[in-house]
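Our preliminary data section would be incomplete without showing what the modeling component actually yields. Below, a chain of 84 amino acids is followed by its predicted structure, encoded as tokens that our downstream tools consume directly.
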Amino acid sequence: MTLSDLPLHGSAQVESVRDLHANDAIARRLKELGFVKGEDVRLVARGPIGGEPLLVQVGFTRFALRRTEAARIEISVKTPEAAA
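Predicted structure:
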């Protein structure tokens, strides 16, 4: 599953950021911003037109991402049992 598929207010953990080609600047920047394996993420809001941009929280920081950027971030959804 990717971050762009996460339901509104859903929580997950980052598994990886997908590189589309060698020296992918966008993938590198996403990793620099904190989208690294094991980091908790939450989809806070979606934009009014076409659901874009996505407001995503990583740790205590929020970012606005395009759907294409969020689609590069592979996640695993947190289940209620795992949070307990």
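The chain has three helices and five strands. Strands lie at 11-17, 40-49, 52-58, 61-65, 73-77. Preliminary results of this kind motivate Aim 1 of the renewal.
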